[in-house]
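Weekly structure sync, notes
Attendees: PL (lead), two postdocs, one rotation student
Agenda item 3: pending single-chain targets
PL asked that the sequence for the first pending target be pasted directly into the notes so everyone works from the same version. It is reproduced below exactly as submitted, 202 residues in total.
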Amino acid sequence: MSNLYVGKNYSTDEGDRMVIGGILELKEGGKLKGFPKAENLSSSATVGELISALKKAKLMTGDAFTIGIASCTPPIANTATNSAAATVTYADNVITVSVPSVADLLDCDHGEYYGTHKWLGFGVSTGLSSVAGLVFDDGTAKVTLGESDITEAQSVGLTTAGQFVLYIKAEKVLAEKGQSFTLSYPGYEDIEISMQIVETGE
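Predicted structure, written out during the meeting:
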């Protein structure tokens, strides 16, 4: 029989993990480091502002995005034609774009910076009252959306608050067997959304 006794508080995983099964007592003058902190608020702050600050600091569970898909009409004719030929759905954090054939989509010139590709566009609904301040990160570029993105969404027929237009290179998404992006917003839980192209052969 072993004489080894393990107390309620102990270190494990070669010191990488401390388990507290008893009481962790912090004496006067002691400090804890590395914990998240909420921003200072004025004494006149409302309950709503306090809750928002706690969520932003991740001291409370953040709100959840309400993701949806909406059709739109991009200003570039070939992109609008490609978009009209696609069926876009969303379920379980996955956007599925169905087209008869990516090769049959039209080439679309989106300018010197974005290039010519099999572009198509659609709207993404977030459930936010405004996308200003929403961070879009696809691993290549990290962009904070602003008023220009709201104006762009409205110009292609996305008139509901909290929507933005997303353009994708269909041939690139197909070749890479999918892509993904993350949305972040103060007070909300980050969400990672995957995209896939399905060729229906119709």
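Discussion points:
- The CA atoms of residues 179 and 195 lie 5 Å apart.
- The longest helix spans residues 47-56.
Action: rotation student to compare against the earlier draft before next sync.
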